[in-house]
Write a structure and sequence with these properties.
Helix content is 43%, strand content 7%. The protein is α+β, with helices and mostly antiparallel strands. The strands form 2 sheets. A 4-stranded mixed beta sheet has the order 1-2-3-4, with no helix packed on it. It has a 3-stranded antiparallel beta sheet with strand order 5-7-6. The relative contact order is 0.07.
């Protein structure tokens, strides 16, 4: 089987019986000199008999799925740690798995040393899985020995905070909580389980005073700020939960706003494809309480001053495409709509009789 590398011209011949499947113990090492276009023969084997033959011109020993520094991407690292992809992402957010910036400046990766540290820990992999185990309302109320109704009132009042969420088939938001946190809360605050609830909680929490979304946003923002060391990235992290009006008021320079738009992180992934689901998730991504908005506005002003002292934003035109893996544009749905309208105005009117994409059958 012949595979052509369009960018380098390198050619690799792989026997058809090669299977790079770690479950059967197969092992594949590829050494290719892409600079000289050398041709390499790749063989697999379970022991010392396997090897690599390469033409002259130099060799590299990077394993498949690893960068030059030995870092693993999210999918490969999750397999090595026997975690589902969602469990792996949550473990990185909680700091159980240390990540580092990739060599190409892309998505964060996990070093081989970190993988070995986690695999050598006592109780692996069950112990790691337990630390990222999440539960919904029914199981969470059972862990705390309270009724589901009481558990929901505690969560809406912010006394227990969700760590993530998903949309069910009815596009209803289902909040998830860390099982370990609920156990600790039940043990440390027995009055929440047995005592009389405060007067406001006895009658339930008003719909507009549901603290679950802002508690989740606070956790995500805190994780992203802890993970980032670039001053402009930190501005983008705080700004991604403010709508377009607040952002335009605080960041008046259009070049700075365009730069922040490129750096905006993905608070929630995967971003849904249907319009109704995007609308539901979009509402959860933006700060909606006066106190929360004031807090993020103050944080943005502080981080923005630090970023401007560090270096100016690049004076380039706003790009038409966003980086892979990035979240929705800063400012939420309104910001995205303004960007599309601006791009349409710059392109000019379309042909007579043209039908907008959203109105096509």
């Amino acid at each position: 089987m012949s595979i052509s590398e369009a960018r380098t011209g390198a050619r690799i011949d792989v026997p058809t019986d090669v299977r790079a499947d770690e479950r059967i113990g197969a092992r594949t090492d590829a050494r290719i000199d892409v600079r000289s276009g050398a041709r390499a023969q790749v063989r697999t084997g379970g022991g010392g008999g396997g090897g690599v033959k390469a033409g002259a011109g130099g060799e590299t020993g990077a394993r498949a799925g690893e960068d030059a520094s030995g870092g693993l991407g999210p999918s490969r690292a999750a397999r090595e740690l026997h975690l589902k992809r969602g469990e792996f992402e949550l473990a990185t957010q909680l700091g159980h798995i240390r990540t580092e910036v990739g060599t190409a400046g892309g998505r964060r990766r996990v070093s081989r040393r970190e993988i070995e540290r986690l695999r050598a820990a006592e109780g692996f992999p069950d112990g790691l899985r337990q630390r990222v185990r999440t539960v919904g309302t029914a199981e969470g109320s059972a862990l705390m020995s309270v009724s589901p109704g009481r558990f929901t009132r505690l969560a809406r009042a912010g006394l227990v905070a969700p760590v993530t969420f998903y949309l069910n088939r009815y596009r209803t938001v289902v909040w998830l909580y860390l099982a370990d946190e609920l156990r600790a809360c039940a043990a440390g605050e027995p009055r929440l389980r047995l005592g009389r609830l405060p007067r406001g909680l006895c009658a339930g929490v008003d719909e507009s005073d549901d603290r679950r979304p802002r508690n989740w946003r606070g956790r995500r923002i805190g994780h992203l700020l802890h993970e980032s060391e670039d001053p402009w990235e930190r501005v983008a992290v705080v700004g991604c939960v403010l709508d377009a009006a607040h952002l335009a008021e605080l960041v008046r320079d259009p070049y700075e706003r365009a730069y922040l738009n490129r750096l905006a992180p993905a608070l929630f992934r995967p971003y849904p494809e249907s319009e109704a689901a995007r609308s539901t998730v979009g509402r959860l991504l933006l700060a909606d309480h006066p106190d929360e908005i004031a807090w993020h506005r103050a944080s943005l002003e502080t981080f923005l001053a630090e970023a401007r002292r560090a270096r100016p934003a690049p004076r380039a035109e706003e790009p038409t495409t966003r980086a892979e893996g990035a979240g929705p544009p800063l400012g939420g749905p309104l910001g995205g709509l303004l960007t599309r309208l601006r791009a349409r105005r710059e392109r000019g009117p379309g042909p007579v009789g043209a039908v907008p994409p959203h109105e096509r059958g």
